[in-house]
Amino acid sequence: MNASIILSELQSIGTKERAATLQRFFKTGKGQYGEGDVFIGVVVPQTRKVAKAHLQTPIAEIEKLLGSKYHEARLCALIILCERFKSSSEERREEIFKFYLDHISSVNNWDLVDLSCPVVLGGYLIDKERDVLYKLAVGNNIWERRISIVSTFAFIRNGDFDDTLKLSKILLMYRHDIIRKAVGWTLREIGKYDVKTLSSFLEEHAATMPRTSLRYAIEHYPEPERQYWLKRKKSLSSHIFGERVSD
Known about the structure:
Elements: H1 3-13, H2 16-25, H3 44-52, H4 59-66, H5 71-86, H6 90-102, H7 110-125, H8 131-137, H9 142-150, H10 153-156, H11 162-171, H12 177-193, H13 195-205, H14 211-217, H15 223-231, E1 239-240, E2 243-244
Helix pairs in contact: 1-3, 3-5, 4-5, 5-6, 5-7, 7-9, 8-9, 9-12, 11-12, 12-13, 12-14
């Protein structure tokens, strides 16, 4: 199966009205985080259906899809990669992992990140060194930063929280909400498995972490405990990594 056939299938079910809605939702306007992204107008369940019908697509054709200007084409490629990864040998998983990193610039919106990196990067790194995540965390690209922390969902589900906590400390003070929400989200996930570990982290950081991250992190606490942590929050006016920190 080649990329042009897959793209044609996506285009046959897309609508202009839905494309316009998606482009607003994913902030594709000038100066927004998804600036320049182009949508066909296909919802995720439809894209998944197309992807699962073409799981044997050659890697060269997947590469073409990842290079497409169309968001849904890149999403389709990533779904195929994730499904392949889940059913592959360790050797093939390593190839997919490296392929993903080589094409990481195509993983350039939050849904693409959140769907793929916990499976491919997190899944591959479960029992390996994780230096690559720290390199991504300190880069200048917001999507690579988000990939670094969201990949750790795979570790959290294994009861392994160390890298999530370390990466959270690195990323906490970045200005962009795309990062702040991801940090809070992953911290909240830790709390589902080990609330004492989350509370220990908050004891150290709640007073100074961005309000967005804190609110996400404490979402599942009982209301009295939520209020306790919110009251510990203080306003900041310092600069971290050259970026002004504010709520």
